[in-house]
Amino acid sequence: MLTSSLRQFALLALAAVLTVSAAPAGAQQSGGTGNNRLLRMFELSPEQEKKIAEDEHPKILEQFGGEYQNPALKQYLDGMVAYLGKLSDQPSVQYRLTVLNSPVVNAFALPAGRIYITRGLLALADNEAEVAGVLAHEMGHVTGRHASQRYARASASSLGVGVLGVLGQVLQGTELGGLAGTLGQVAQTGAVLYVQGYSRDQEYEADSLGVKTLNKTNYDTQAMASFLGKLQAHTALQAQIMGQADTSNKVNLLATHPRTADRIERAIQQAGPSSKQRQLGREQYIQHLDGLLYEDDPEQGYVRGTKFYHAKMRFFFEVPTGFNLINGTTEVTAVGPGQEVIQFDAGTQNFSGAMTDYLATSWKNPQAPLRNVERFSVNGMEAATALATVAQQDGSRKDVRLVAIRGDNAIYRFLFITSPESTQKFADAFRRTAQSFRRLTDTEVAALKPLEIRIRQVQSGDTIDSLSAAFPYDRFKRERFVVLNGLSGANATLKPGQMIKLVQEQR
Known about the structure:
The chain is of the alpha+beta class and about 500 residues long. It has helices spanning about 5-20, 30-40, 45-65, 70-85, 120-125, 130-145, 145-155, 160-170, 180-185, 190-195, 200-215, 225-240, 260-270, 280-285, 355-360, 420-425, 425-435, 440-445, 465-470, 475-485; strands at about 95-100, 105-110, 115-120, 295, 300-305, 305-310, 315-320, 325, 330-335, 340-350, 370-380, 380-390, 395-405, 410-420, 440, 450-455, 500-505.
């Protein structure tokens, strides 16, 4: 979580409303001759694709924590990209890989050959062939021109404007003014290329193109399916940690993305039987993960269960039990059991008036006026709170509790978002969260250390339980170990000499 400007406060509200809003079912679908002609009108030329890729690159870096700095790892992955690119359906494309400094498991591509992969995905992958499968899949999106097609659909349907327009209704006002127009512009630019998801058919096509490329290599073609299996296990574990049911493989006729299970089955069928001559490249890959930063970057603070620490900015707060904390580059988000949302960020200290005036200045919206504006104190720091009710596109309403706290070097902001019928239920818990905000002591700061991946060989007598016991988590130690190492559930076993991944505090 990085310090952001007052404008980011508006973006927090925007993101929060989007979290609880839904796009119209089937909005990305187009049909009929007229629609197809309309889509062709919005298709991008190769020159436009290149410009969008270059324009969006710095925005992606900002959103995903910048580029992860590890020259040896970068050189290793660049070699894989060059090898796969020559065997892709469009070997003339100059594929460029960026490793993003983000703990989320993600990979995506922009037009003109720009491919992005997170360090979180690299940590989850177990061998070179799996990463090659991911890269080949993203190359499939590039060669299939899926991003351009997605842009065309969004432009033709004005989907981006429709969804993001919700924020425009929320954020009208002096300090927040102009944001609605900005959002509309974003929806009509290359930003839509990575905000929206690919369609079911596009994902299947990228899988097929990826398998086709892998078949030309010496990699095990089954690796694409094996990584999808790891992704499925990871998703299920995250749902378990959050106390939610795993719905990733439930049949949803309105979903644009295929179920992971369906993709696994198709990938296995397309790849065919594995050959002993084909390689996984596990040892050489896993060795490159030794020392890989895991989960939060120190510059963005640390999530530890329901607690958030920021050593550099020297503050702490705790969210209610049952809320899952997610650390972002500009904000921290916590999602509750009923999709209640807490969002937090920090703005520069450039307001000299009272915190009540700060709220009034930052939020002027005739459609969502502030009420119950109050002054209070948080651990010796001046603070203010207010409530607003925001109308959403579907006619429903959300209550937004705003809290602003004047710190030593920043103004810290909370947004607590609930449905009106749940506002009172969470009032005390949200009050405790706001009151938990405090300065960190020197001792607490010194004790905070980032996590990293360490590689070691299994020794005689080592078990999953004995090795996972040292994982720096309060819950699900064994489950995290099993998923991280791509092991098979409750019956998983280890063999002496086997290379495994551990999570430890940085030395």
